[in-house]
Amino acid sequence: MGPMCYKAYGSGKEDSPLCDVPGFENARMKLLRHVSFVDCPGHDILMATMLNGAAIMDGALLLIAANESCPQPQTSEHLAAVEIMRLQHMIILQNKIDLIQESVAMNQHEAIQKFIQGTIAEGAPVVPISAQLKYNIDVICEYIVKKIPIPERNFTSPPNMIVIRSFDVNKPGSEVDEIRGGVAGGSILRGVLRVNQKIEVRPGIFMKDENGNIKCTPIYSRIVSLYAEQNELQFAVPGGLIGVGTTMDPTLTRADRLVGQVLGEVGSLPDVYVELEINFFLLRWLLGVRTKGTEKAGKVSKLTKGEILMLNIGSMSTGARVLAVKNDLAKLQLTAPICTRKGEKVALSRRVEKHWRLIGWGQIQAGSTLEVPPCPL
């Protein structure tokens, strides 16, 4: 059966709809995969957003415009981020194929193969498509099903979810009796969340005391609803994006205030760190920096004591001051506490020409943790 047999629908679609391929009108289709998409912006200013999204991905679609030269600065940066996050499974989409001649498309295909040579994307399929005219969208569906395997999920450990969205669903002027608790959206890394389950969010609420020391208080709540898009669930498992309705004060979740925090079973979440010791690796060249209208990759200089970096750990972005550097080890003081664990990957960005640019990555070896008060419940 050819690619025309693959179709994409919203999650509200019935599991076995009638086939609309000519000659198979009376046959029924079979549900193969539910897929959640995280759209990562290409603009360099939003690189931190892209890294946050990459933290929860099982695979990647790398989009390249056929009517532009390859690679564009952000394409190089995105590919570097994919390597840092160790996304093993990738499909490259050569979009806007309807706007160029076949010879130009073939030349760019060769440029793409040269660009990905020696990277984690080497050997990835390159699919020519037109999103506007829906050319080869069925082929993408087939590749997603066949080339991006469903990773093994851990359903038995205590639940752990990283928050990439949070919001207040109440409309202005709502009556007190109608006010609903805050909502956190994200992806479950392990374990199972259930309706009516008691949960903890770390680091929670944090502030500095008179001496400048950071204190944090986890948020304790209860799950009142679980949603995957428009589908209401009784329990949610790892994979995909989940909306968690809680009994939290909605002002705590308004305008993505919980982004970067970790939600899970009470007493089972990792420690909260204010200082980190990381083993780091710097890129040799700065990706995608443009100078006087031309692309110029400047050399990445060594980390220096006292400089400010931006760290991406999971879905959290925070500033960090370099306290000490020795060989490939660095000690960093965080501007905001982070709930994480040893061994986690860290993306490092430096301020270059008023933009945060990716300069390398690291792995957490140790750190200073905050004392978290016990659950009062």
Q: What is the overall shape?
A: globular
Q: Biggest sheet, open or closed, and with what strands and sense?
A: 6 strands, antiparallel, barrel
**Which structural class fits the helix and strand makeup?**
mainly beta
Helical percent range?
Answer: 10-25%
Question: What is the ordering of alpha helices and beta strands?
Answer: HEHEHEHEEEEEEEEEEEEEEEEE
Instruction: Tell me the Rg in angstroms.
Output: 23 Å
GO molecular function: GTP binding; hydrolase activity; translation initiation factor activity
Catalytic activity: GTP + H2O = GDP + phosphate + H(+)
Domain Tr-type G: 1-152
Protein name: protein-synthesizing GTPase
Topology:
Blueprint: H1 47-54, E1 60-65, H2 73-84, E2 90-95, H3 102-116, E3 126-128, H4 137-147, E4 160-167, E5 183-190, E6 193-194, E7 198-208, E8 214-228, E9 231-233, E10 235-236, E11 242-246, E12 262-265, E13 272-282, E14 290-291, E15 294-295, E16 308-313, E17 316-326, E18 329-339, E19 345-352, E20 355-369
Parallel strand pairs: 1-2, 2-3
Antiparallel strand pairs: 4-5, 4-12, 5-11, 6-10, 7-8, 7-12, 8-9, 8-11, 13-18, 13-20, 14-15, 16-17, 16-19, 17-18, 19-20
Helix pairs in contact: 1-2
Catalytic activity: GTP + H2O = GDP + phosphate + H(+)
Protein name: protein-synthesizing GTPase
Family: Belongs to the TRAFAC class translation factor GTPase superfamily. Classic translation factor GTPase family. EF-Tu/EF-1A subfamily.
